[in-house]
Amino acid sequence: MRFFVLYTVCLGIFFTACSKSEEEKPEPVVPKQLKVNRLLLDGEEWNTIRYNVSRNPVIRIFFSEPVLPSSITNAVNLTNKAGQAIAANVVLEQKDSVLKIQPTGNLDFLTFHRLQLVTTLKSASGGNFISTVDQQFVTRIDSSSKFPALTDDALLTKVQEQTFRYFWDFGHPVSGMARERNSSGDLVTSGGTGFGIMALLVGIERGFITRQQGLERLQTIVEFLKTKATRYHGAFAHWMNGATGVTIPFSQKDNGADLVETSFLIMGLLTAREYFDDNAPAAIELRSRITEIYEAVEWDWFLRNNGDVLFWHWSPDFGWDMNLPIRGWNECLVTYVLAAGSPTHPVSKEVYDKGWAREGAMKNGASYYGINLPLGEPYGGPLFLSHYSFLGINPIGLKDAYADYEVQNRNHARINYQHSVQNPNRFFGYSGSVWGLTASDIPNGYTASSPQNDRGIIAPTAALASFPYTPDESMAALKFYYYVLGDKLFKEYGFIDAFSLHNAWFAVSFLAIDQAPIIVMIENHRTGLCWDLFSAAPEVKAALRKLGFTAPYL
């Protein structure tokens, strides 16, 4: 009996133990997925690209689960815009549920950075990382002055002289003409050369070169244009080889005459003709040869079978296939002025009224940002429309049946300025000191920026060539570009072509048609030099009167 009881007790204990063992068997661990709950940059939520970030930012990523420490190795990619890795300290905090990332040293000012987490990251329980982290930020602007302080006058001269080097030091060694851009080699531009000739005259007046040096450069250019450059009914191509004069196509069918570029070239030549007004044999010969170049252009032939509008292009291979009539309002007013004033192949006032002014259809009259715009497209378009023709044509007090051109150009610049101040697209960096939309290089391309085509790209030429119209606003821009951004913008040939604070992008290019207006329009603001010279040409005065213009200087 005792034995039975003992046996029963032992058996009970055995089954109880077995039952208890089965009950206490641990559940298998299910890996929990890892995801991001919050992302902070310097203590603030980081959901979109951030600007004006400190140079040694602290990034914290809050996860849904503790992170497996061994998985953070190589999981963090902090890079600059070129994709180069930025060294950073990476540690886990708050029981391994927060990842802290901080660069080991100060980042460069005003540079783009990108943070990515790779999917090798794991939770402490072995779960996969299921979120995506791919964020961007731009560090703050260095507000310190990059160059010693100058008086306003000295600063204007400094900018003119540095920019002048593009046309003097970088002019083509054979033809003396202006290269299209700093990477163009033998490719030179007719319109950019016309603008560059005017810059040359400023260089003489400012003492950057001597009068004799300027004369010799002009002689080289004029000799090349008369004896080597290919012409089409007297007009020049947009681009040509600076050594041979052979046309370089601007596009497939644009391989012949470009009447607008020709007019920009002749505007510069006539301005130089009026400048070299002494009785020295070299000056007399220069003036004569410039007049011959002007008189050889068959402006009336570009009416295309005696029509009532000038056409921009003609090709020996494709004829009129480009089919682009020159109608206002745009940068081409000087084309009609020179055509009307031609002593040999003039066009009529009717052509100006019907073809260019479209019998008044080029008028606007609406207000933008509270500013009335007499002519042109909404918001005025790119600022070069108020620069190119007016490097030579003086708009101050100039009026005709369609507009007051002083008001037109000033209000165009003011609208462009207000667009940056009010910044409807919320681009980082736009302000009363960072403004100006015009044609320029952009990342991987080129565009005519305007309030209606705003990609966040600022071109220094836009505000600086507007000095005659907006002197205070242009000076504010100049000082910011030179003193604050000068280490990134002001280079061997003056200001680079364009930049974007929003994208932390800075062009490496210089373009003739953007550099020259800076020099020339600053000089027109200071002394009226090129305005006085071009407007004094007898053919120009006669043309403006013929077309119905009035001005104090006519």
Automatic annotation (TrEMBL):
Keywords: Signal. Residues 52-139 form the SbsA Ig-like domain. InterPro entries: Glycoamylase-like_cons_dom, SbsA_Ig. Signal peptide: none annotated. Residues 325-536 form the Glycoamylase-like domain. Pfam families: Big_5, Glycoamylase. The keyword Signal applies. This is Ig-like domain-containing protein.
